């Protein structure tokens, strides 16, 4: 082992006699120094790239995690929304209106409880009656003619409520839209 270490030292470093011996030895040392500096720079740049790659990886993972949570909530909402639609149809039905006040209150409370539960996890219901039509948030089922120009492209009725998480629309509201005939 000692011999191999000595050989390594002999090949990497020049003796003082060789250095004093000429310009060729000095040139050789300069080349070795230049090569060592280039290797150092290459290793430094590689380390910096690895560090930047790791920082990007951590940022992407955090983004994926937050997106994953939002997707899970959206999937849950999509599973519950048909039940909410059924409640809305029941609340607007003739038999609901003919039922006892206690029964109406109970059904309404159940419906509102579901809406509140969704709201607590960030899922919002929107009923855009009277708002301007926005094709991103609303799905027009029919047009209703109007002579009032101020109502042009305004929502007349909401057939089914819309749902969103933040700016992301889970389901657009289905609406009837006023159109002004010139």
Distance between the termini: 99 Å
Shape: elongated
Give unreliable regions as ranges: 1-10
Helix content: 55-70%
Spell out the helices and strands N to C. Answer: HHHHHEEEEEE
- In DSSP terms, counting alpha (H) and pi (I) runs of 4 or more, how many helices? 5
Q: Name the beta content range.
A: 15-25%
Largest sheet, strands/sense/barrel: 3 strands, antiparallel
User: What is the radius of gyration?
Assistant: 37 Å
Nearest-integer average pLDDT: 86
CATH secondary-structure class of the domain at 125-182: Mainly Beta
- What is the CATH superfamily of the domain at 125-182? Head domain of nucleotide exchange factor GrpE
CATH architecture of the domain at 125-182: Roll
SSE-based structural type: alpha+beta
- Across the major sheet, the strand order is 1-4-5
Describe this structure in words.
The longest helix has 69 residues. The N terminus is likely disordered. The protein has 182 residues and is α+β, with helices and mostly antiparallel strands. Strand 4 and strand 5 form a beta hairpin. Helix 3 packs antiparallel against helix 5.
């Amino acid at each position: 082992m000692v011999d191999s270490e000595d050989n390594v030292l002999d090949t990497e470093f020049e003796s003082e006699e060789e250095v004093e011996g000429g310009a060729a030895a000095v040139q050789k040392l300069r080349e070795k120094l230049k090569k060592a500096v280039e290797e150092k720079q290459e290793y430094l740049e590689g380390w910096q790239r690895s560090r930047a790659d790791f920082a990007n990886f951590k940022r992407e993972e955090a983004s994926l995690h937050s997106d994953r949570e939002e997707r899970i909530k959206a999937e849950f909402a999509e599973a519950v929304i048909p039940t909410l639609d059924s409640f809305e149809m029941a609340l607007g039905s003739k038999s609901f209106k003919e039922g006892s006040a206690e029964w109406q209150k109970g059904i309404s409370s159940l419906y509102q409880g579901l809406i509140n539960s969704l709201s607590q996890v960030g899922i919002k219901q929107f009923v855009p009656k009277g708002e301007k039509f926005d094709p991103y948030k609303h799905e027009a089922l029919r047009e209703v003619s109007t002579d009032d120009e101020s109502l042009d492209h305004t929502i007349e009725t909401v057939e089914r409520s819309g749902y969103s998480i933040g700016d992301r629309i889970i389901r657009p509201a289905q609406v009837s839209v006023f159109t002004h005939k010139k």
